[in-house]
Amino acid sequence: xxxxxxxxxxxxxxxxxxxxxxxxxxxxxxxxxxxxxxxxxxxxxxxxxxxxxxxxxxxxxxxxxxxxxxxxxxxxxxxxxxxxxxxxxxxxxxxxxxxxxxxxxxxxxxxxxxxxxxxxxxxxxxxxxxxxxxxxxxxxxxxxxxxxxxxxxxxxxxxxxxxxxxxxxxxxxxxxxxxxxxxx
Amino acid sequence: xxxxxxxxxxxxxxxxxxxxxxxxxxxxxxxxxxxxxxxx
Lengths: 184, 40
Prior knowledge:
The complex is a heterodimer.
Chain A lengths: L1 E2 L3 H14 L6 H16 L9 H10 L7 H14 L4 E2 L4 H10 L5 E4 L5 H10 L8 E4 H4 L6 H11 L6 E3 L16
Parallel strand pairs in A: 3-4
Antiparallel strand pairs in A: 1-2
Helix pairs in contact in A: 1-4
Chain B lengths: L2 E4 L15 E3 L2 H13 L1
Parallel strand pairs in B: 1-2
């Protein structure tokens, strides 16, 4: 999957998220996000360390919007859906996964994505990837980034006893699914 | 576990990244590597 960043979708995501928690549009919130938080996404090495739900909670808190877990989840889901147009599945991803499976390989996805796992699993389902993968694991679920030894251990636990090969981003995913060679 | 790094959509240039066993510049490269490894 290719992820295409769009400033317009930042605003659209915030509009959708705010609407989901019963708030009106706040352009100043998006402006604040772009000034204070967005630079973190582009600084080398930092995107892997972002805990997005906490970042959103801080962003909302900057505007005196306190949200509980349920409301935060609604914001995140609505924002995530607003970004759907930015997630483009590779044209040959399905045939590739099917061909690899046809070789008798078990297929797994290891992702450093910072979005909550329940949103990312919904993406896999939406893209027809769930049924083409044997397992998937997201850093945001295990709390360990996939370049660390701990996540590597967790990963080998998933694939133990299965004959497998791994492809960093075999599905073509970048932000949500790309895995570093040290840990894919 | 053998690793194949996909490079068809972006270059992974993280300073802490390790070296993959193989690199794939197209999705077909992944399939070719898998076939080659299985045949070996």
